[in-house]
Amino acid sequence: MGSQLHLLHPILVLVWILCGAADAVTQPNSNCTKRCGPLEIPFPFGTDESCSLDSSFLISCNHTSTPYLTHNNSTVLSISLDGEMRVSAAVARGCYDVNGTRINETSYDKIFNLTHFSFSSSKNKLTVVGCNTIGEVVGYNVIERRNYATGCFSVCLSVNETTSGICTGAGCCQSPIPASGLSDIGIGSYSSGADSYNAVFGNINPCGYAFVAEDGAYNFSSADLVNFRHQSFPVVVDWAVGNQTCEEAQKNTSSYACRADKSECYNATKGLGYVCKCSTGFGGNPYLVGGCQGVSVGVIALLVTSFYVYWRMKEKRLNKLKEQFFQQNGGFILLQKISRHRGSKETAKLFTVEELKTATNNFDESKILGKGGQGTVYRGLLSDNRTVAIKRSKISGSTQIEQFINEVVLLSQINHRNVVRLLGCCLETEVPLLVYEFIPNGTIFEHLHGHNINNPQSLKLSWKTRLRIAIETAGALAYLHSAISIPIIHRDIKTTNILLDANLTAKISDFGASKIVPLDQTELTTLVQGTLGYLDPEYMHTSQLTEKSDVYSFGVVLAELLTGKKALSFAVSPEVRNLAIYVVSSMEEGCLVQIVDEHIINEANVEDLVEFANVAKECLRVKREERPSMKEVAMQLEGLRGVVGEKHRLEETKSSLKASSSSILDVESSKFIDSLSQVPMSLAGGR
């Protein structure tokens, strides 16, 4: 037995030496270079064979500290143990002389042979820059064992046809490289025409460029067509160990690369081979013996503490920023004004930004109802299940804050059935957020001009409905001008700012451009603001804003209701382009009936249409002093509704009488027939 142990001892020593030798082959020694210039070199990569897993992971470091893959001379920019690295890839170019002859005759200007690794299929793109330039990538797919090609075509005749930052075909195009496992590729760039210099480029640099680069690494500039200054771009490369699966590699423990105790093997998903990762809860280098170390409780506690401190500091900064915005937007002034109206039931509520973020799912784009000159409007659902419209206002600036606050307080107290009600605001953001009641049935513009795709049945507004909408809108404007303590000029009355509720009741909205008129003034000098087609011409020329400016805009709305045409359209003949001028001139020429909307021409009485058009014409007078007030307009339209209603009642009465007389005749006729049936046959049938 002792002799047997004596013989086993050298064998065990030999096994230990062999195992140690195997570890030595696959593990770096302490003298290995860990850095080359800015690049950290983690194992399995190394600068010589004793420091790398094998020759495919060799990195050379020259005297300028520029690291590059030894087997293909590609400059290495970064290495990740997750199985990715970034290398520098040169730009391919195709240039032509003044005769249109290609200067460089090679089929592919740049050839990249990664040999052991492959180009990332999800993180790289082919980009082509040039006018009438074709760029192409060809290669061999080692996974599917077939050739692969992709490309794109960039078209332009001059630099002016291109837009910096946009790479969708004009001067620049991009194409994904969806195939995995491409280790050898060629990149080419060439013109689509023979006389490329004279016919395509002119005085532009007569070259086209093609390159594979990491997605987002290149941002197109029109200047690149004239002077392309880039020589290379970063490319994402997928790397893995060998060409075996985990199951195959684990059978040979001496060459198996996952050396750490707490490491796991994963088959490469984008090429051949496998990669190693530390198990959950461990970090480090899984390719080194003892390379995966567990994350200690102390480190976890430190991370949690650090996160908590960071969160508290961030929360403090956010609160400070909210206070800054609140003060900047006049929050303290608003609080003072609200306190004066505590006896009133209708006062503006101050919403928190968290409330409105929750209501709009953090202002998600899917919640946008519309965008305009005064801001973006979102649909929101408050915690009390009220649906509201939240407007991200464009009102800002210290000179406007006082007036803005006055408008908020005033509008929050307006309780008119034909004015969209302001529920409150939020001042904790850079620009104020206004909260309005939600009106579900779109705008007059959508109904008149066929843009309400959600409710196609409501596009044909009847004459009776149009008249009622006009009366309701006129009444609301008259209320704003003369029935409240401080008059308000809306300044942007148009069909897109008149909403319709579920019953098609009119609601005036969007007071972002409105002006409060001091009691001792009748007009204001302001910067001209409004919408072309609706703007008061006298206000446009003098900058003097009065209540009559709203009257003119309302006249255009009446013209739209009457004709079904847009206030301003460049898609029609010049004489119809401006609706206000077109309606007035048609009336003066006695051609009113010809321009009335076909949807109401057979429903409305001609005299009623003429009277309605006359009201619009009075509102559209060029001189403001000749226009009626909104109160007078409302009264005229109300009178018209009375006439229409009386005519409607008369028609119903006539119809009823006609039906009654017909019924009487039917009864009498029946009696006559019955009497004939009682006559003897001799009398009834003979003479």
Task: Please report the number of helical segments.
Answer: 17
Please give the order of strands in the largest beta sheet: 21-25-26-24-23-22
**How many β-strand runs?**
32
- Content of β-strand: 15-25%
- CATH architectural group of the largest domain: Orthogonal Bundle
Could you name the CATH homologous superfamily of the largest domain? Transferase(Phosphotransferase) domain 1
In a few lines, what is going on in this structure?
By secondary structure, this protein is of the alpha+beta class.
Please describe what this structure looks like:
With 687 residues, the protein is of the alpha+beta class. It has four domains: 84-238, no CATH class; 239-295, Ribbon (Laminin); 329-438, Phosphorylase Kinase, domain 1 (2-Layer Sandwich); 440-650, Transferase(Phosphotransferase), domain 1. It is built from 17 helices and 32 strands. The strands form eleven sheets. It has a six-stranded mixed β-sheet. It has a four-stranded antiparallel β-sheet with strand order 5-6-16-9, with no helix packed on it. A hairpin with a 5-residue loop joins strand 28 and strand 29. Mean pLDDT is 81; it is low at 1-25, 452-457, 660-665, 667-673 and 675-687.
